[in-house]
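New to this. Help decode both lines:
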Amino acid sequence: MLLLAAALALDACQRVVSIDLNEANPQIVIEGVVTDGPGPYTVSITKTGNYFEPALIFPTVSGASVVLRDDAGTVDTLREVEPGHYQSSHIAGVPGRTYHLTVVAEGSEFDGTSWMPQRVRIDSVYTTVLREFDGDRGYNIFVQFKDPPQQGNYYRLVVHTNVMPSDSVTGQRYLLVSDKLLNGNEATYQIRAGRNVSAGDTLTVTLYSLDQATYDYYNTLRSIVSFDRSPTALSPANPNTNLSNGSLGYFAAFAVDSIRTVLH
């Protein structure tokens, strides 16, 4: 009798709940960047995909109104150069200015604001040879730069080679740095490239100077990618965004410095 009661109780707890994972409408995803390099700058607009059909290509959004403004009074209406990709014509990326993005798509308006910090230059890049346990040769990469004296500087480091142009040599796509512990000092960062690079490869090190909102976006995105082990996996949450009205993605204005060197 006791076993029967326990079985009935267990059955009562095991209710079948049907969840329609496609119930939510697709969300707008906006990705826009302004740098201190020469334009044009591009804003891409897509939509989130089907939960059961994850893909690397998402539906594009055409026919949107996309406007970039800066705090110096420049207004640039972007032109759609291909489906979902909008390009500036005359706005310039200048450190110290604040940029505002307005997108009107499918009856809704989305806004984002980003401040471009001053460019922090890389002082030097050097490498040391790393001998693996099996005798193969690898590399450690060291990047040095001087953090400005004022508090609140944020960075992203990207290191790739001519044979790995689209990814980090370490596989870690979001190497982020804040000046909370190094404010105003010379910083040296070691990147263990191992056997992902070889003698003769051209190494490109890029330092992005970010505002806090962009840093927060990359930081939460890094956590999601690390959790899922893949940037294309289904994430448990969306990264922080500086865009309004429920849009996903980000709008960023950052300064960029790069150094190239050949490994020996």
